[in-house]
Amino acid sequence: MTNNLNDESFANLCEALLHFLLTASLLPSERKVTWKGAELDLVIPSLKMLNKSPDKTLVIQIIKGNEVLTKIKDAKSVQPHDGNIWTVSAKQLEIDHKNYYVGSSLFPYPRIIIDINAFLLQKGDRGLKLLHGQ
Length: 134
Prior knowledge:
Elements: H1 7-24, E1 30-35, E2 38-44, H2 47-52, E3 58-62, H3 68-78, E4 85-88, E5 98-100, H4 112-122, H5 129-132
Parallel strand pairs: 3-4, 4-5
Antiparallel strand pairs: 1-2, 2-3
């Protein structure tokens, strides 16, 4: 990360890149939605699936600044499966959820699209078309 980008700007850049990759892959997702009073950045594949089968749905929150507690609380209020709540941030967060950030050896940001694909395939979804060349 360069000194010219602050954490919020860097998180915005990561969010924009993730949106682009999801769009390019033709993967159904809902972005920047409010559901049951919770503000959610990304729901994969959909709110309908979150309501019907939360075990087959990811909620990904983009953490900017010091909003980590609010974002996690919102996600937990609608997603009962803690393992299906992921975060993206500029720096490492001290949380009990997958936290993708640049420089991580455990959950590096560039790996998030591969992990989304693996999650979907494991849950019986078609996965990302971009990765399969379809």
